[in-house]
Specification:
5-stranded mixed sheet; 23% strand; homodimer; 445 residues; 3 domains; globular
């Protein structure tokens, strides 16, 4: 297992009690952090902590390594024990969850008890919560007063997205941040107040990144293409680390570089990315982290073009993804989900004889859907998607996962695919591929 | 957050060193377990442990609660410390990952060192690995011999899907299982050998579950409605534990019961669910775990009805969710994403004067979209959704998040909402609410 993002040597504040040295590895920072996610639901087979991913990102940005992550239920003794264990070994502890108003929300109380800090009610928090409830025409329930308790000496972190404020505690050499559990409350707090307060602790070295997105190739094919390039990056000073991650129909290349010189780091990453560009060719989606649908949006906008979609097996998912981009109403004119043959004929002008001759899932029908929606919507480019998402509807010649996708501009391109996986995976891969076909059409056409 | 899924009282073998008792809560097994996932890549912002979900499911099935989960990098000192901490407090420890052949793979060695067990090379494992390599025409690399080292007294667990065997160690009162990291190797081992070996420890008690879905109310409102009921369940024998989880526009109630009698357990859960039904009324989506879109599908199918949708701000997401259900092509006839005013007028027959008079985001336009698509598709019921997903497009009177949704059958129902959050959250809440309005229309109409 490649280990180039792990804590760099057991030099953490907590010290190292075990025999045997770890071999040196990247991210060699002077401090590291522990993360504890609190919530019994996070211990069920159905749910897990994902907050720590965002928290790790912010910590890594600051050059702070994550030494361990723990998930604990809403239980006093267990939580106390893990907090003590973390603070014994690590200077920074980030807790998320357990700041709610009910009896089960213990984080605030357990941290204060462990540190021996009394708790005081903060009238400003009570007032802010009362205003928040009043704005919706509600009265604040009495239980919410718990959320206004502050361990003595702690700094309150404002939470514009919820009732539970965060807390920042400096205690001896330890730094402890308590963040709410809901991601939309936790993220702005971690990225704002907590990042600003951690920065002075972290020293001058920062983690710099570039995210390169690639489509149309698998993880190992991309690895094979770029390995000769990124292996060279490891020998330069400072080295650039590369991580390859596969998603549905897409591959991400994460380039990471630690440096105290932001200008030099940006130049080194830019030079690295420029080495990738000719190798990846049209499979390169973006070199700046932009999502596929945003790239397509920018290409359409750049041409002053509008698009319309005719979807069948994807059931609206391709349009939904395109319209996840703010401002997409400028270039997504309309879309039709034509599940039934009648809808294909009526709304898209697909010739009934074409359906009879080739079947609804066929390249000619996909092409007719794409040009049909293009003509009716009077836009520059149309997309047609027809396929078998399963689990039913497959046959020997057209098994589940068979999908035909067309892009119609002045010329029409159409291709057939056989996607793996269940219904939702076939839908997701089809939508992604359709949007990527549009991207290739726009950069080549 | 309600906490009724957590380990049941700090009665684990490891004992409880912290002050303050936890209030009694469910899953009161005599033993509980800790899970440690090992691997530095699991501490990056891009990847997290998911093995523990499967491991938790098997443990819970056996009536064993998960007390905590920890993720540690491939680092000797950190890993040793977490193993010691887990074994201090919990009788069962399941480790996954770090059994590979490289220097970074430390789990085997660190566990043996911590327990003071010498390691011996197992010639049977060497022979099996050599056969595995030979079958592919390769010679076993020397590094792989590490994988044949077995702490003295440990039982080797066969791994038909990879080279790294698992290990089962009984040491004093502790039970420790070492499983490989790749899911396709870990899962059969956990579900097979480890389950079989844990079962006698766990006794005859198993965990039985029911999942109840609720919509249209927030987590705390649902809690308030059902609390008087579920609090009574805690006093019956065996008690039923309830966990309330909030999603986007939906709430889940997980009912859990531990019993050695499967028939009795099913009857008790059925009786419990029947108590909820009258209280939740039309907010009750399902008592058998079915998703909202599947419930709507069954209702439509039961009536022999078909639906068509006219979406604006949701961009196809409502239709995509409805069509996530296998067989939904039977009752989803068509859908139109009418972003532009022209598309609303042309495809749905919305009166241009209506748009001018009330604006595109208005109840009259939503109603006209719903009845327009219903008429044009010649189906029983139509849905219209128009709103401002943001971040742009809001005004003082119609801020971002304003969404009007209509369901048109023989009568038309229309409502306005103001959803919180960013673009994707507004889209998700709007789609969920539209599908739920259809559900209510179908059960009441």
């Amino acid at each position: 297992m490649a280990d180039r993002l792990s804590p760099g040597g057991d030099t953490a504040a907590g010290g190292d009690t075990a025999a045997g040295g770890d071999k040196p590895s990247g991210l060699s920072t002077s401090i590291d952090a522990a993360i504890i996610a609190v919530g019994s639901e996070l211990l069920t087979p159905h749910k897990t902590d994902t907050n720590s991913l965002f928290i790790s990102q912010v910590l890594n940005d600051l050059g702070i390594a994550v030494a361990c992550k723990t998930i604990v239920g809403d239980r006093r003794a267990e939580l106390t024990s893990h907090i003590a264990h973390a603070l014994d070994r690590h200077r920074i502890l980030i807790l998320t969850g357990g700041l709610g108003p009910t009896d089960d929300d213990l984080t605030r109380e357990v941290v204060a008890a462990h540190l021996g800090l009394p708790m005081d009610e903060d009238p400003a928090i009570v007032a802010a919560m009362e205003r928040r409830f009043a704005a919706r025409g509600w009265k604040m329930p009495a239980v919410n007063r718990r959320q206004a308790l502050v361990p003595r000496g702690a700094t309150v972190l404002a939470n514009p997205n919820g009732t539970a404020p965060g807390l920042w505690i400096e205690h001896g050499a330890s730094v402890i941040a308590l963040l709410p559990g809901p991601p939309r409350e936790m993220k702005p707090m971690m990225d704002g107040d907590v990042r600003a307060r951690l920065a002075p602790l972290a020293g001058h070295v920062r983690l710099h990144r570039r995210l390169v997105r690639v489509s149309g190739r698998g993880e190992s094919a991309v690895e094979e293409m770029v390995q000769p390039i990124y292996s060279g990056w490891l020998n330069q000073a400072p080295p650039i680390e590369t991580t390859i991650l596969a998603g549905l129909g897409q591959v991400e290349l994460h380039l990471l570089l630690q440096s105290s010189d932001a200008v030099q780091a940006a130049a080194a990453l830019e030079a690295a990315v420029n080495q990738l560009t000719p190798v990846l060719g049209p499979d390169l989606v973006s070199i700046d982290g932009r999502e596929l649908e945003a790239v397509v949006g920018d290409l359409l906008r750049g041409r002053g073009w509008r698009v319309a979609l005719a979807e069948s097996c994807t059931g609206g998912l391709a349009t939904s993804r395109l319209t996840d981009v703010p401002g997409s109403s400028d270039y997504v004119e309309r879309s039709v989900v034509a599940y039934s043959n009648e809808a294909k004929i009526e709304l898209l002008g697909v010739d009934a004889a074409l359906v009879t001759a080739h079947g609804a899932v066929s390249e000619p029908v996909a092409a007719a859907m794409a040009s049909g929606i293009r003509d009716r919507a009077r836009v520059n480019v149309g997309i047609g998607i027809t396929g078998i998402a399963g689990p039913g509807g497959g046959s020997e010649h057209k098994p589940v996962g068979t999908v035909c996708i067309a892009v119609a501009g002045r010329e029409t391109r159409v291709r057939s695919y056989r996607f793996p996986g269940g219904r939702e995976m076939v839908k997701a891969l089809s939508a992604n591929t359709a949007i990527d076909m549009l991207r290739r059409f726009l950069i080549e056409g």
